[in-house]
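The instructor's notes for this session suggest beginning with a concrete chain rather than abstract definitions. Hand out the sequence below and ask the class to guess, before any prediction is shown, which regions might be ordered.
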Amino acid sequence: MPGNATDAASAAAPRGAARRRVGRPPQISRQAIAEAAQQVGLGNLTLKAVADHLGVSVAGLYHHIRGKEDLLRLAADQALLRRVSVFAAPFTAAAAAEVAGTPPVAPAGVADALARLVDHSLLVAVPGEGTRYRALETIRQYGTEQLTEAGELDATRARHLRWCLATTSELAEDPSPTTGDWRLDITVRTTEIDSQTAQINVPLG
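After discussion, reveal the predicted structure:
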C-alpha cells in the first residue's frame, strides 16, 4: 500500500485502535475468536473480518485457528454451546440436534461438536446408559446472554419447548415403560417444560 494511503488510514482510525497498533497486541483466544465470529455474523464471516473486529492481524489468528474451515467450525460450536444452554437437565446429542441444529450448526455434526465442547471443559459428559451432556450454571448463564445478543433466545426456547412437549407425549404413550430411564426422562421433560413455560414469549406455531 502506498505510504500516503497508510497515513490516511492511520489518521482515520479511532484513537484506541491506533494505540493498539503501537502498543502490546490484544490478547486473544479461541473463545474470543468465537465470540467475534458471532458478532461479525455468518454472512460476513471471513478471517479478515474477525481479525479486524478483534484489532489483530489475520496472521495473529493463525496462532489459535488453522484457517477458514476451523473458523466456521468454531462459530458452529459457539452457536451450539449457547443454544444448548436452554437445557435445564442433562441432554442427549439427539436432543441437542433437534433443538440447536439450525445454521450454522449441522445436525449431523452435533455429536462431534459436543465432544469438542467437553474437551474444552465447556460441557460435562454425564456417564450412564447413553451419553448425556450438561452445562454448569455459569455456562448456562453465559449461553443465555449470548442467545440474547445473537437474537436467538425466543426462537431457541420455542424449539426446546416443542421438543419437550413432543417427547413427553411419546413417553406418556409408551405402553411398556421401563422403571429407570423412563421415570428419569419423564421427570426431566416435565421439569424443563415448567422452566420454559415460565419464560417463553413466542408462539409455538
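Then share the key points. Confidence is low (pLDDT under 50) at residues 1-21, 200-205. The longest helix spans residues 153-172.
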